[in-house]
Protein backbone atom coordinates (compact mmCIF):
# COMPACT_ATOMS: atom_id res chain seq x y z
CA UNK A 1 0.00 0.00 0.00
CA UNK A 2 2.93 2.35 0.56
CA UNK A 3 3.59 1.98 -3.15
CA UNK A 4 0.26 3.61 -4.02
CA UNK A 5 0.86 6.42 -1.51
CA UNK A 6 4.20 7.09 -3.19
CA UNK A 7 2.52 6.86 -6.62
CA UNK A 8 -0.05 9.49 -5.60
CA UNK A 9 2.72 11.81 -4.43
CA UNK A 10 4.62 11.37 -7.70
CA UNK A 11 1.45 11.92 -9.73
CA UNK A 12 0.71 15.04 -7.69
CA UNK A 13 4.19 16.43 -8.33
CA UNK A 14 3.97 15.85 -12.08
CA UNK A 15 0.42 17.17 -12.44
CA UNK A 16 1.21 20.20 -10.28
CA UNK A 17 4.21 21.02 -12.47
CA UNK A 18 2.10 20.69 -15.60
CA UNK A 19 -0.46 23.08 -14.10
CA UNK A 20 1.97 25.79 -13.01
CA UNK A 21 4.61 25.52 -15.73
CA UNK A 22 2.92 26.45 -18.99
CA UNK A 23 6.20 26.14 -20.92
CA UNK A 24 6.52 22.39 -20.28
CA UNK A 25 4.32 19.99 -22.20
CA UNK A 26 2.84 17.08 -20.30
CA UNK A 27 4.44 14.65 -22.76
CA UNK A 28 7.90 16.12 -22.14
CA UNK A 29 7.48 16.01 -18.37
CA UNK A 30 6.17 12.44 -18.39
CA UNK A 31 9.04 11.31 -20.63
CA UNK A 32 11.60 12.95 -18.35
CA UNK A 33 10.37 11.00 -15.32
CA UNK A 34 9.21 7.88 -17.14
CA UNK A 35 11.79 5.40 -15.86
CA UNK A 36 11.39 6.52 -12.24
CA UNK A 37 7.60 6.40 -11.99
CA UNK A 38 5.67 3.34 -10.92
CA UNK A 39 2.79 2.13 -13.09
CA UNK A 40 0.04 3.42 -10.80
CA UNK A 41 1.50 6.94 -10.87
CA UNK A 42 1.46 6.78 -14.66
CA UNK A 43 -2.16 5.62 -14.57
CA UNK A 44 -3.10 8.57 -12.36
CA UNK A 45 -1.19 11.10 -14.46
CA UNK A 46 -2.62 9.88 -17.76
CA UNK A 47 -6.10 9.50 -16.30
CA UNK A 48 -6.18 13.03 -14.88
CA UNK A 49 -4.80 14.46 -18.12
CA UNK A 50 -7.27 12.50 -20.27
CA UNK A 51 -10.33 13.32 -18.13
CA UNK A 52 -9.31 16.73 -16.84
CA UNK A 53 -12.36 18.62 -18.17
CA UNK A 54 -14.77 16.02 -16.81
CA UNK A 55 -13.00 15.98 -13.45
CA UNK A 56 -13.05 19.76 -13.20
CA UNK A 57 -16.77 19.83 -14.01
CA UNK A 58 -17.52 17.12 -11.45
CA UNK A 59 -15.57 19.02 -8.78
CA UNK A 60 -17.22 22.33 -9.69
CA UNK A 61 -20.66 20.76 -9.28
CA UNK A 62 -19.84 19.75 -5.69
CA UNK A 63 -18.56 23.15 -4.58
CA UNK A 64 -20.76 25.28 -2.36
CA UNK A 65 -20.11 29.01 -2.12
CA UNK A 66 -16.92 28.53 -4.16
CA UNK A 67 -16.07 28.62 -7.81
CA UNK A 68 -13.56 26.23 -9.29
CA UNK A 69 -11.37 29.13 -10.44
CA UNK A 70 -10.87 30.25 -6.81
CA UNK A 71 -9.36 26.95 -5.69
CA UNK A 72 -5.59 26.91 -5.28
CA UNK A 73 -3.41 24.82 -7.57
CA UNK A 74 -2.46 22.37 -4.80
CA UNK A 75 -6.12 21.72 -3.96
CA UNK A 76 -7.12 21.44 -7.64
CA UNK A 77 -4.40 18.90 -8.27
CA UNK A 78 -5.26 16.81 -5.21
CA UNK A 79 -8.97 16.94 -6.02
CA UNK A 80 -8.38 15.88 -9.63
CA UNK A 81 -6.37 12.84 -8.53
CA UNK A 82 -8.91 11.82 -5.90
CA UNK A 83 -11.95 12.35 -8.12
CA UNK A 84 -10.23 10.38 -10.89
CA UNK A 85 -9.77 7.52 -8.42
CA UNK A 86 -13.36 7.80 -7.19
CA UNK A 87 -14.87 7.82 -10.66
CA UNK A 88 -12.52 5.64 -12.72
CA UNK A 89 -10.46 3.39 -10.42
CA UNK A 90 -13.16 1.10 -9.04
CA UNK A 91 -10.71 -1.14 -7.13
CA UNK A 92 -9.78 1.78 -4.83
CA UNK A 93 -12.19 2.07 -1.88
CA UNK A 94 -13.79 5.51 -1.62
CA UNK A 95 -12.58 6.04 1.94
CA UNK A 96 -9.01 5.23 0.95
CA UNK A 97 -9.05 7.67 -1.98
CA UNK A 98 -10.46 10.42 0.24
CA UNK A 99 -8.09 9.77 3.14
CA UNK A 100 -5.07 9.70 0.84
CA UNK A 101 -6.18 12.97 -0.78
CA UNK A 102 -6.55 14.65 2.63
CA UNK A 103 -3.08 13.47 3.65
CA UNK A 104 -1.62 14.65 0.33
CA UNK A 105 -3.19 18.09 0.76
CA UNK A 106 -1.81 18.39 4.30
CA UNK A 107 1.63 17.30 3.13
CA UNK A 108 1.86 19.80 0.30
CA UNK A 109 -0.17 22.65 1.80
CA UNK A 110 -1.73 22.89 5.28
CA UNK A 111 -4.31 21.32 7.58
CA UNK A 112 -7.06 23.69 6.39
CA UNK A 113 -6.46 22.41 2.88
CA UNK A 114 -7.07 18.86 4.09
CA UNK A 115 -10.38 19.89 5.65
CA UNK A 116 -11.47 21.57 2.42
CA UNK A 117 -10.52 18.49 0.36
CA UNK A 118 -12.40 16.21 2.77
CA UNK A 119 -15.51 18.39 2.57
CA UNK A 120 -15.58 18.38 -1.22
CA UNK A 121 -14.76 14.69 -1.64
CA UNK A 122 -17.30 13.56 0.93
CA UNK A 123 -19.97 14.74 -1.51
CA UNK A 124 -18.79 12.08 -3.98
CA UNK A 125 -19.39 9.20 -1.55
CA UNK A 126 -21.76 6.50 -2.75
CA UNK A 127 -22.69 8.14 -6.03
UniProtKB/TrEMBL annotation:
**Domain NusB/RsmB/TIM44: where?**
6-125
What are its GO biological-process terms? Answer: DNA-templated transcription termination; transcription antitermination
Any idea which UniProt keywords this protein has? RNA-binding, Transcription, Transcription antitermination, Transcription regulation
Gene Ontology terms for molecular function? RNA binding
Looking up CDD domains in the UniProt record yields: Terminator_NusB (cd00619)
Task: Report which superkingdom the organism of origin falls in.
Answer: Bacteria
> Which Gene Ontology cellular component terms are annotated?
cytosol
**Role description:** Involved in transcription antitermination. Required for transcription of ribosomal RNA (rRNA) genes. Binds specifically to the boxA antiterminator sequence of the ribosomal RNA (rrn) operons.
The protein's matches in PANTHER family, at most eight in alphabetical order, are given as: ANTITERMINATION NUSB DOMAIN-CONTAINING PROTEIN (PTHR11078:SF3), N UTILIZATION SUBSTANCE PROTEIN B-RELATED (PTHR11078)
Under the heading HAMAP family, the entry gives:
NusB (MF_00073)
Q: Report the sequence similarity comment from the record.
A: Belongs to the NusB family.
Q: What is this protein called?
A: Transcription antitermination protein NusB
The gene that this protein is the product of is nusB
Amino acid sequence: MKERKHAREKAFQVLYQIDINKDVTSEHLIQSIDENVNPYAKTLIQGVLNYRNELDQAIDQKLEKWSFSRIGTVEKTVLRIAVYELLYEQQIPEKVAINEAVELAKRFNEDQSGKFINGVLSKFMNE
